[in-house]
Design brief:
Length: 137
């Protein structure tokens, strides 16, 4: 990964209030691949103690989107156009691990996926289409 993309990604993460709110910590950043962890707080759980699907979908969207972002020119940005999320089992643990990777990069659209694990078990798999757009800010 070139230094410019890594700096761009770092600035995007630092200035992202939603990433901070969720407490996402990036553990690996490579071209087209992101790995991250997120500690689970009580407010992320449903009444039964299971992690809410919206938390899983938000985490998957964020990590797949950042994987796409690593392959986006520095003068462009990415926005989620579509996200399909499959919840495979209930997540009960204390921490989630996400692995996001680009399946097909493109000039105008990237297709990426994300797998989320809890206690080393696959709990969620998502795929998304990310549009390459002019910077919004």
């Amino acid at each position: 990964m070139n230094k410019e993309i890594l700096e761009k990604l770092s600035k995007r993460v630092e200035g992202n209030p939603f990433v901070k709110h969720l407490g996402i910590r990036f553990t690996l950043v490579e071209d087209g691949r992101i790995e991250a962890v997120m500690s689970l707080r009580p407010e992320f759980r449903q009444y039964s103690g299971v992690i809410h699907g919206g938390i899983l979908a938000s985490f998957a969207d964020t990590i797949a989107g950042f994987a796409a972002y690593t392959l986006t020119p520095s003068d462009k940005d990415v926005l989620t156009a579509e996200l399909k999320t499959s919840f495979l089992r209930a997540a009960w643990g204390d921490e989630l691990k996400a692995i996001g990777f680009v399946i097909k990069p493109g000039r105008n659209i990237h297709f990426a996926e994300c797998e989320i694990y809890c206690d080393d078990k696959l709990v969620c798999k998502a795929s998304g289409t990310f549009c390459v757009v002019h910077k919004q800010i």
